[in-house]
Amino acid sequence: MDVLDRLRKLQSDFGWSDYRIAKEAGLSPGTVSNVYKRNNIPNITTLEAICKAFNISLSQFFSDNDSIELTPELKELFDNWIKLPEDKRTVLLQLIKICAKEL
Questions:
Q1: Could you give the residue ranges of the DSSP H alpha helices within the chain?
Q2: What residues have CB less than 8 Å from 62, skipping those under 6 apart?
Q3: What pLDDT digit, counting tens, does each position of 25-83 carry?
Q4: What distances in angstroms separate CA 41 from CA 5, 23, 25, 93, one per listed residue?
Q5: CB 39 within 8 A of CB 4
Q6: Can you tell me whether residue 74 is helix, strand or coil?
Q7: What is the pTM of this model?
Q8: Inter-axis angle of helices 72-83 and 3-14, to 10 degrees?
C-alpha cells in the first residue's frame, strides 16, 4: 500500500484541505503540506495523529478492506461525529443502538 495515496484518498473522501487535516490532527499546516510536497511518508507519530483526526486506527489505515462506501450521509455523520465531545458521542451511540434494536 502506498501511504501517500491512502492519505490522499482519505482526504478526498472527507473533503478536507491540508489545513483541515492539520487542524484536526493537532499538527502544523506545514507538516501536512510537506508530506505531499516532498513525497515524504510521515513518521509514525504524525501518521497516528492524522489517523486519529480521521477517526481510524493505524490498522484501519493499512487495511486493504475498503468494503464500506463513504456515502454522503456517512460523510456527514462522520464530519459531525468528530466535532462532538466524548460525552455526547456516548449518548448518541446509545441512541443509535436503541434505534437499531427497533428495526
A1: 3-14, 18-25, 29-37, 44-53, 58-62, 72-83, 86-101
A2: 1, 6
A3: 999 999 998 998 888 889 999 999 999 999 888 888 888 765 566 678 888 888 888 88
A4: 10, 19, 16, 34
A5: yes
A6: helix
A7: 0.61
A8: 90
Residues 24/15, Cβ–Cβ less than 8 Å: no
- Grid cell for residue 87: 460525552
> How is residue 84 annotated by DSSP?
S
Instruction: Please report, to the nearest 10 degrees, the dihedral formed by the alpha carbons of residues 42, 3, 54, 99 taken in order.
Output: -150
Distance, in Å, from the CA atom of 93 to the CA atom of 100, rounded to the nearest integer, reads: 10
Q: Which of 78, 63, 65 is nearest to 16 (CA)?
A: 78
Cell numbers for 35: 508530506
CA distance 44 to 26: 14
